[in-house]
Each structure stands twice: as C-alpha cells, then as structure tokens.
C-alpha cells in the first residue's frame, strides 16, 4: 500500500470527481440528460466575441479545484483539456489559471471565500468548478456576481429552484453508458476460458464506490445492467468506502470481494479506489480503472487493469470553452456528454487488446454501437427513486 500511495498521492489527496457524489434521496434523483434549464442566454454574441478578439486580450479561465491535481483521474483530465486548448490556440488567445484549494476537511472552509475572491477580480471570462461539494458556494457566487460566467460540472444544477440564472453552464456526463460496457466486460471475463486466473464458471463481479450517492449509483446502475444483459445469473458484490481518500479501506473492502469469489471489480472511488487496484494485483484478479487511463498511469499494476472508463472532462471543457469564445455556449442550461458527444468512453489501446481477448472486445464494440444508435437504453440513477436503485442492487446480491 505504501508503494502505491507514494506513487500516486504524494501530497495530492484529492477527491475524485470522478466519482464524488452525494446521497440525494428521491428529491435529488432528477434527470440530468439532454439540455434543460430555464432562461437561456448564450454566452455573449458573436459580435461580443469579435470585440474581445480585436482588443487583443486573451480569453481567460480560472479552474478552481476543490482538491489537488495529481489525482491521476478527474481533475487531471480537466487540467489536460485546458492545457491542450492553450497549446492549440496559443496563450495570446486562451489562457487559464488553476487554483488547488485542497481536498482535506480542513480545506473546505476556504473553498467559498476563494471562489468569491476570484469572482471579485473580474479578471476571468469564466470560472470552472465542479462536484456536489461546490454547489452551495456556486449558489452564493452566481447571485453576488451576475455578470460572472461559470461552468459547473459533474453535479446537476437546479436552474428552476435557483430562479433560472443565465450565467451558469451545467456540464454533466453519461457515466451510466460507459459503466454499462464495463459491467458487460466484467461479466464476459467471468465466462471466458481465455482469461488467465478467472474461473469461466464463475458469476461474481465486484464494484467499489466512494460514497453511496446518486452519482456513484449512476455508475452502479449502468454497470449492473450491462453485466445482467450478457449474464442474467451474474452476482455483484457492492461496497462503498465512505469517502474518496482512504485507499487502505478500499483495499480491505476489495480483498474481501475477491476472497468471496469475485474475479474482477470496478473502481469508482477516486483515490480510495487505488486500494482496489493494489488488491487486484496482489490477488491475481482484475480491476477496471476510472476517469483516466489508469493502466498507463500505474505501469506496475497495469497487468491487472484491462481498461479504464473515461469521463472526458478535459474534452468537454475544450469544446465548451471554444463554443463560449464563439458566443455559442448555452448558459442557463444543462448539457450531458455521453458516447455520442465524446464525453465518455473506454481506453481502447494496445494494452486493452493485450489483456482482453478479441471475442470480448468485439462484443463490447457491438454494445457501444447499440447504445449510440438507441437500440440499448441504459438506465440512470438520476431517473430512479432510491428504492428503485436498491431494487436493482438487490437483484444481483450475492446469495
């Protein structure tokens, strides 16, 4: 454990966003797909964009991280997208600043004041924040600074309850779609005679979540649906760490899953999920990664990571900011990014081809195509009650 923690955390104990969700209950289980919201006001007209370009001032963004970079996951993906945009356009056209606010409980009191300080400067064309932990701070900031634009990601914003503000663009991801493929892949692995170390007659897979909340359960619902669609008799061992930091606890929970018969599990627990990856490596089992290409980032553990489920926050920010620079970003709305929009996906590289046999890879490609063309509709926790989610989990509970 010390080796993995030293390798990855090194003072960057960040909450993943990937995976940072809160328990919202039935009231919070609102649909977050498509475009929604009240008043729509585009992020400035083309004429406004032209004036800014003529002034010679670059478009400037601030990315406030309620954690730290170095998570090898969600925040790093966001930073990568902003860095790539700056490289592609040039710093004279687009520039950005990252503020790492820390992710420990002691840091939380400074998140809202830091956001308000950035708003007060009037220096940034857009301020980017994300996860449910920043929801209340955003509620304060958008009212105090109605001329400041915000991009808020990975948590639904209730525009109607807020009076339909037109200075927020809400960016969501269809993690249930990519989780469907992971679940299908995990179930196929347990029935394949080509997977080293797996009993092809086994029907138990695992899932490790950070916290028991709607966002993590959106991953879980898709994962279970995908697994059951390829193996109706599949059983799923589900565990929640209770946070996104405790990798030691994540490892203990994962070792228990493997000892109870699971051959493959899915990490949706941020830094805590690093414990799952180590447990899989030590046990000769498999663990799907999340949010970034964790096989590439963790070469010592890559043999245990078939592929990773990506939530491409970097790609989404790259596209959204370009739209805003052109005056076309639809503030006052929520946009969800799935397979079709390039917002989610699996890492499909040489390592993926090496670990998973062609029969499984072919089947997953067919399933993704069916999702994209609408033949498969993936269930979402955002469209379900808490009781309905529990019913799904109970349907695959280990007997």
Description:
This protein is of the alpha/beta class and 399 residues long. The protein has helices at 2-8, 25-28, 46-55, 74-89, 111-121, 135-144, 175-189, 214-230, 247-259, 274-283, 294-297, 313-325, 350-355, 358-372, 386-394, and strands spanning 35-36, 41-42, 59-65, 94-100, 126-130, 149-153, 168-173, 204-209, 235-240, 264-268, 286-290, 308-311, 330-331, 333-337, 344-346. α11 links the parallel β11 and β12 (308-311). α7 (175-189) packs antiparallel against α14 (358-372). It is elongated, with a radius of gyration of 21 Å. The two termini are 31 Å apart. Residues 2-54 have low confidence and may be disordered.
Supply database-style keywords.
7-stranded mixed beta sheet, 399 residues, disordered N terminus, alpha/beta
Could you describe the largest sheet, including whether it forms a barrel? Answer: 7 strands, mixed
Q: Helical amount among residues, as a percent range?
A: 40-55%
Derived from helix and strand composition plus strand pairing, the structural class reads alpha/beta
Strand order of the largest sheet: 1-14-7-6-5-3-4
Number of strands: 15
Q: What's the mean pLDDT score? A: 86
Strand content: 15-25%
- N-C termini distance: 31 Å
SSE order, as H and E? HHEEHEHEHEHEEHEHEHEHEHEHEEEHHH
Report the principal-axis shape: elongated
* Low-pLDDT segments, ≥5 res: 2-54
The helix tally amounts to: 15
Radius of gyration: 21 Å
